[in-house]
Design goal:
Elements (H helix, E strand, L loop, with lengths): L22 H23 L7 H10 L2 H16 L3 H22 L2 H9 L7 H17 L5 H31 L2 E3 L10 H13 L6 E3 L16 H12 L11 H17 L5 H6 L7 H30 L8 H11 L5 H4 L5 H17 L2 E4 L11 E6 L5 E10 L9 E6 L10 E8 L12 H18 L15 H11 L6 H7 L11 H9 L5 H20 L9 H11 L17 H4 L10 H18 L5 H12 L7 H9 L6 H6 L4
Parallel strand pairs: 5-7
Antiparallel strand pairs: 1-2, 3-4, 4-5, 6-7
């Protein structure tokens, strides 16, 4: 059959026709896209006319549409539905993308054309486009001599290969690390639907009659908060923290060391002291010193609060506390001190109602947009749902896809990505996806969310809004194509509506009785918000500073023992709390080692939260969930993408520079 990826999709909004795409189509389309894009670049370089904005910068933005179409579809499957065939194809194709990028940004003739563009009469977005391209050329190594460029190409190819292998091993390790439990009695304390999911997972793994506790990506596993059997808690915790570091085929510590070595060499080749300095040069943070200063300011207060929490937990436990006890007794504190029983809340957080009457409801009230499920449109897996999103006047805005359930072919964590990016130049509207990893209940049973899953659902939809509201000319600036330390900001702001009274009252209803979550429970949830922030901030900062430690070393100083290096890095940062492991350890830190864009940038969550805390204050000061507030947030920030300095967008919204104090207050660190 004809490859459906070789032509523009005829489906609404350019949604890829997944029902007719076969595995071999991805490879054919990607290879054809690489060839076509290279030809388009050559045509730009070989243009006989003098370089202009139109025949160089605009031509670059129009080029590569086949490659974009094919790669967006393919890498969506790599993350969300990676069969063995897809994984093998990823290994084959990833180095080709790296080499292709090098051919573009190490092309001195192409750089010369960009350098010669006269920007005198260009509008601000067009000026920014040229400047952004010029900066990428410089950061890619255009100033290196031939020998340096050749070495850089080799480094980039090897980084691509190693990052792909790291990601695949981590996914396999997460699957292999799942904890098999023999009897239901050992799961005492877990919710009935979670036990049912564990039974189904065991059956699917060929262990009928047993129970399989699958792992999620972060260190802390949800069942740790409810399992009464301390031995099972210990086994689950140890299975989580030992991933990727126990030797054997799934150990990734060798890959982490190799990746860090190559990144250090790359940074030094490009004239930076280390890889962290190279990355910060691409972000909104003014320099690495500013990042280090913020983290250093927060760490002692976070550990101090965590130590106080540990003391309280030990008193309740009545025995010496271990790392696998923390979540269990923390949940007990919430129940006893704040009268918040997280397990008892789950019946009020049913996924479909959370989406329609919570996430979508808040968006409709803020922005006037509406959501219409399109059951005639299909995704890449039967679990994927598709909604058409329209503006208040009924005009088309884009498509939103939701893929909420965990499966063996999906990587861990939660994320948003785009299948189609908005661009006035190309006449395209956005198609965006949210992925979560919620355990799928037995047939006919409701999907009940934990508080953490509830937060993640709102968070990822904040990313989706950033993509959907994009209103830029050039695809390079579309939606979430902003610096890494800014991209988490809009998504974190969207979390504020979870407990907003008007929103909570609309979605938090018992799935069986329809009864509204009692107001006194909602009040207690608000009162308990700061409980656990010592733990949460410490485990996050541990991961952020571990990331920076790996990327601050020179290539001559890469450690031989990755685990010893991790221990020392946490100790040096004052974050070696005996009961709190980093949110991600080196053996499963996919954010920074698997090419997902957070290497030397995991700090961006807390950097973005500074802006988020300021914006929550702005919403609250100006009346909260109103159309006026939503309209301003959309027009000044969400719609801008990277078409202007993102911090300028923030200042335009807030009216001043951001301050750290609102975040410190929120986390109880002031």
């Amino acid at each position: 059959m004809t490859n459906p990826l070789l032509v523009a999709s005829s489906l609404p909004y350019g949604l890829p026709p997944f029902s007719t795409i076969e595995i071999q189509h991805y490879e054919e389309a990607v290879l054809a896209g690489l060839k076509e894009h290279a030809s388009e670049i050559a045509a730009i370089v070989n243009t006989v006319e003098a370089p202009t904005f139109s025949n160089t910068a605009v031509a670059m933005e129009r080029a590569g549409q086949l490659l974009q179409r094919a790669s967006a579809s393919f890498f969506t499957l790599v993350s969300a539905h990676s069969t063995p065939d897809i994984a093998a194809l990823e290994t084959k194709l990833s180095p080709l993308f790296s080499a292709h990028d090098d051919e573009i940004f190490l092309n001195s003739d192409l750089f010369a054309r960009f350098h010669a563009i006269d920007m005198a009469d260009l509008d601000p977005e067009s000026v920014r486009l040229v400047e952004d391209y010029r900066k990428e050329f410089r950061q890619a190594g255009i100033a290196l001599d031939a020998h340096g460029q050749e070495r850089l190409r080799s480094i980039n190819a090897e980084l691509s290969r190693l990052g792909t292998e790291y990601g695949q091993r981590v996914k396999d390790g997460m699957k292999a690390g799942a904890l098999l439990v023999d009897t239901v009695e050992e799961l005492d304390g877990m919710a009935a639907d979670d036990i049912s999911s564990a039974a189904e997972a065991a059956t699917a793994a060929g262990q009928q009659g047993k129970y399989l506790l699958t792992l999620i990506q972060p260190t802390n596993q949800p069942p740790l908060a409810t399992l009464r059997d301390r031995t099972v808690r210990r086994r689950l915790y140890e299975a989580s923290v030992s991933r990727g570091s126990g030797g054997g085929d799934l150990d990734v510590l060798d890959l982490a060391r190799s990746l860090a070595t190559l990144r250090a060499e790359k940074a030094e080749l490009l004239g930076f002291a280390n890889y962290a300095e190279l990355v910060v040069d691409q972000q909104t943070a003014p320099d690495f010193a500013a990042v280090a200063s913020m983290l250093a300011r927060m760490a002692p207060a976070a550990v101090r609060n965590a130590t106080s929490e540990a003391t309280a937990l030990a008193e309740i436990a009545g025995h010496p506390l271990e790392a696998w006890d923390w979540a269990y007794y923390s949940a007990m504190v919430r129940r006893e001190k704040y009268a918040v029983d997280e397990a008892a809340l789950r019946p009020y957080f049913e996924l479909d109602r959370v989406l329609k009457d919570g996430v979508f409801f808040a968006a409709t009230n803020l922005f006037g947009i509406t959501f219409h499920e399109r059951k005639d449109l299909v995704g890449y897996h039967p679990d994927v749902r598709v909604w058409e999103v329209r503006n208040e006047d009924g005009s088309e805005l884009g498509l939103f896809l939701g893929d909420y359930y965990a499966r063996p072919t999906k990587r861990g964590g939660a994320w948003m990505n785009s299948l189609v990016q908005q661009s006035d130049l190309l006449g395209t509207k956005p198609v965006v996806i949210n992925n979560l990893n919620i355990s799928k209940p037995a047939a006919g049973e409701p999907t009940l969310l934990t508080l953490d899953q509830l937060r993640t659902t709102f968070h990822e939809f904040g990313h989706a809004l950033h993509g959907l509201f994009s209103n830029v000319t050039y695809p390079r600036f579309s939606g979430t194509s902003v610096p890494r330390d800014f991209v988490e900001y809009p998504s974190q702001v969207n979390e504020m509506w979870i407990l907003w009274p008007e929103v909570l009252a609309n979605y938090a209803r018992h799935h069986a009785t329809g009864a509204q979550l009692p107001q006194e429970v909602a009040d207690k949830l608000l009162a308990a918000q700061q409980w656990g922030e010592g733990f949460g901030t410490t485990e996050y900062l541990g991961a952020a500073l571990l990331d920076l430690a790996w990327h601050m070393v020179g290539q001559a100083s890469i450690p031989d023992d990755a685990q010893a290096f991790e221990i020392k890095a946490l100790s040096d940062a004052g974050l070696d709390h005996p009961l709190i492991a980093p949110r991600y350890r080196t053996g499963y830190f996919q954010h920074i080692f698997a090419g997902s864009g957070y290497s030397a940038g995991y700090y961006s969550y807390i950097w973005s939260e500074v802006l988020d805390a300021e914006t929550v204050d702005w919403f609250t000061e100006n009346g909260g969930l109103t159309r006026d507030n939503g309209g301003r947030f959309r027009s000044e920030l969400l719609s801008r993408g990277n078409s202007r300095d993102p911090l300028e967008s923030f200042r335009s919204l807030r009216g001043r520079e951001a301050k750290l104090e609102p975040l410190l207050k929120r986390r109880g660190l002031d």
